[in-house]
Amino acid sequence: MHFCPLCNHAGKIILKNTTTRFFECTCCKGIFIPSNKLPDAKSEKKRYLAHNNDVNDKHYQQFVNPIVQKVLKDFTPAAMGLDYGAGTGPVIAKLLEENNYSIALYDPFFHNYPDIFKKKYDFIVCCEVIEHFHSPGKEFVRLKSLLNPGGKLYCMTHIYQPDKIKFESWYYKNDPTHVFMYQEETLKYIKKNIAFSRMTIEGRLIIFEN
Are residues 187 and 153 in contact, defined by beta-carbon separation less than 8 angstroms? Predict the structure, then answer.
């Protein structure tokens, strides 16, 4: 039996193919691969280095624009931010810094600065990051602990909608580093059980409030 890395309840198999198996949690509805099939750090880093994350690429800037616009609307440049999982091309930080915002970077592979965990932040951005969490339960607890009261966590991911998406042909599951995927029920579970005060979904953008 395989257990959900978010809530530790049992999973039921949702898809078995030649390369891996995907399970759906019977409690939070998170979709995960078994812990013994998680990619190792070397494989993950190689995959991330293959991404073309040019901070000056206009299409890339447009893709992250929903998060950037929310931060500009919700906070002044006096706020302190954190780009968690910034990757090789921290485009959100670049765009916010151009608007005189201060934003720290963290990424276990490319910006591994443990001192960031000694501070608190008004906002945290996780753009196309949360689907890579091997231990989403621990990660969301950590992210909440890093927020100031009233702070906001902005996440971007592709939410699985079973009434609209056929999982067998869903492109998002094909990335071997996408090890935990979310349904609306999963996000509601996080909001309730990690004690965020509010959660809103706007397309791919999810906002948790402390």
Answer: no
Delimit the domains of the chain by residue range. 40-209
For residue 145, give Cα distances in angstroms to 38, 119, 136, 180.
26, 10, 14, 21
| Rounded-to-integer distance, Cα 148 and Cα 78, Å | 14
CA dist list (Å): 53 to 39, 85, 129: 21, 13, 14
46-51 contacts, C-beta under 8 A, 24 or more apart: 47/175, 47/176, 47/177, 48/87, 48/88, 48/109, 48/110, 48/177, 49/88, 51/87, 51/88, 51/89
Sheet holding 121-127, edge to edge: 102-106, 80-84, 121-127, 147-156, 205-209, 198-202
Class of domain 40-209: alpha beta
200 phi/psi in degrees, rounded to 5: -130, 150
The strand pairing partners of 103, in sequence order, are: 81
Q: What is the pLDDT of residues 95-144, one digit of tens each?
A: 999 999 999 999 998 899 999 999 999 999 999 999 999 999 999 999 99
Residue 74 amino acid letter:
D
Alpha-carbon distance of 133 to 32, in angstroms, equals: 10
